């Protein structure tokens, strides 16, 4: 969706992203980099219909128009906070003519706040809210290389998330809970299932992360 809001507010977020100072090799750093403000110049200039119209005049033949390109700013922000947040980490990189697995550990929290990455006019966030919180409930991990490996999962068995139910059934949340949804974590590998600690989950080499909306 292309925003045509006032330039002064078009790049504003629900929470101040400049105070984040995200730690390297963390999911916050990944999100910060993905949503950074970009300047489009030279060969990346934006085609401006208004500038073209102003330059050529409204009565000119379309075939005679000289399209005008202009410098611009671009930023990817979340305009609709999802009920279920799925984060897919890029676990490969180009090395010459080959692809290599990226085995670096990326830190991720039990509760994450998306507000610094949401547009100030995020559609399904109540006015005045400066937090958009999510609780971790599932992780997919890949062990091995690009040629072979094994997928396992960590899943939290938990009670009903009433805040998520309010969002699904009523379109809004009435709660103010900021803690992760309580429950027991399990590691699942093929037919083997065993309980694990949350520290074991958070130390895994995540490939996919699944969060559910709290606020």
TrEMBL record:
Keywords: Hydrolase
USP domain location: 1-214
Keyword field contains Hydrolase: yes
Pfam families associated with the record: UCH
InterPro entries from the UniProt entry: Papain-like_cys_pep_sf, Peptidase_C19, Peptidase_C19_UCH, USP, USP_CS
GO molecular function, a single term: cysteine-type deubiquitinase activity
Any single GO BP term: protein deubiquitination
GO cellular component: cytosol; nucleus
CDD domains: Peptidase_C19K
Full protein name: UBP16 hydrolase
Organism: Chloropsis hardwickii
Gene name for this UniProt entry: Usp16_1
């Amino acid at each position: 969706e292309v925003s045509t809001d006032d330039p002064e507010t078009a790049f504003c977020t629900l929470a101040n992203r400049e105070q984040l100072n995200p730690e390297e090799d963390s999911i916050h750093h990944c999100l910060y980099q993905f949503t950074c403000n970009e300047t489009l110049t030279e060969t990346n200039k934006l085609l401006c219909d208004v500038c073209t119209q102003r330059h050529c005049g409204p009565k000119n033949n379309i075939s005679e128009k000289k399209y005008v390109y202009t410098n611009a700013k671009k930023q990817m922000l979340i305009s609709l906070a999802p009920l279920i947040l799925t984060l897919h980490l890029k676990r490969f990189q180009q090395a010459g003519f080959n692809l290599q697995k990226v085995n670096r550990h990326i830190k991720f929290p039990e509760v994450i706040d998306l507000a610094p990455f949401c547009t100030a006019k995020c559609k399904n966030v109540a006015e005045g809210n400066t937090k958009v919180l999510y609780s971790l409930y599932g992780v997919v991990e890949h062990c091995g290389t690009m040629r072979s490996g094994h997928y396992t999962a960590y899943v939290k068995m938990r009670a009903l998330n009433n805040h998520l139910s309010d969002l699904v059934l009523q379109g809004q949340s009435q709660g103010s809970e900021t803690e992760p949804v309580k429950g027991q974590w399990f590691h699942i590998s093929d037919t083997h299932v065993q309980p694990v600690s949350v520290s074991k989950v958070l130390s895994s080499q995540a490939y996919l992360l699944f969060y559910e909306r709290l606020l």
